[in-house]
Amino acid sequence: MKRLLSLIILAIIALGISAQKCSVPIAIAFKKEAQPIPESSQRAVAAKLRQVLSANGVSGSAGLQTFGLVPSFEILDKSVTPGPPKQIACKLLLSLNILNLEDGVVFASYSTELNGAATSEIAAIMDAVKRLAPKNNELSAFVNQGHERIIKYYNSKAETTLAKADMLTRTRKYDEALALR
């Protein structure tokens, strides 16, 4: 029975690792450090980034994920126009990284400048993020590059991962072996 369970675990891991054309789910994740937008606005940013992922054929789910699309923002310039209503214009540097959330390995990076204007700084930032085009060629290339590099990275580590999973199953650490998938 133990041997059968070990073989099943190894088969699941082998199928998950060695698939050449597989779907790698990528979640939207935010850094713990302070962002120039409040947590409530992060939902809108996450929705826009999910559009980017799905427009490029990459899935994402709400569960625990290994890979994340992590945005970071930097305000490059901000100006206020006087008068009722006052308008705030901002130039925003949006940087995106596709990385392994567990160990921090970065698979692809992308940066772009966005402009936005509104009656508050937060609304101006949100206006700038709304201008991010999900089907932008450079953005599509970034997502595809990250996806391909993830698969290549884990295919190169397949033998080591399978050996570690085998050792864990022999020591009856089945949950840890399955977590390697």
Q: What does the model show?
A:
With 181 residues, this protein is of the alpha+beta class. It has helices at 2-18, 39-55, 121-130, 137-156, 158-170, 174-179, and strands at 26-28, 67-81, 87-100, 106-118. The protein has a single domain, classed as Rossmann fold, CATH 3.40.50. The protein is 46% helix and 25% strand. Strands 1-2-3-4 form a four-stranded mixed β-sheet. It is elongated.
Short description:
The chain has 181 residues and is an alpha+beta fold.
How many domains is the backbone divided into?
Answer: 1
Q: So what's the CATH class?
A: Alpha Beta
- Determine the CATH topology: Rossmann fold
Largest sheet: 4 strands, mixed
Number of contiguous helices: 6
Portion of residues in beta strands equals 15-25%
**How big is the Rg?**
21 Å
> What quaternary form is this?
single chain
Series of H and E elements: HEHEEEHHHH
Q: Please count the beta strands (DSSP E, at least 2 residues each).
A: 4
Average pLDDT, rounded to a whole number, is 81
CATH architecture: 3-Layer(aba) Sandwich
Distance between the amino and carboxyl termini: 21 Å
Q: What is the global morphology?
A: elongated
Structural class: alpha+beta
Query: Numbering strands along the chain, what is their spatial order in the largest sheet?
Result: 1-2-3-4
* Low-confidence regions: none
Helix content: 40-55%
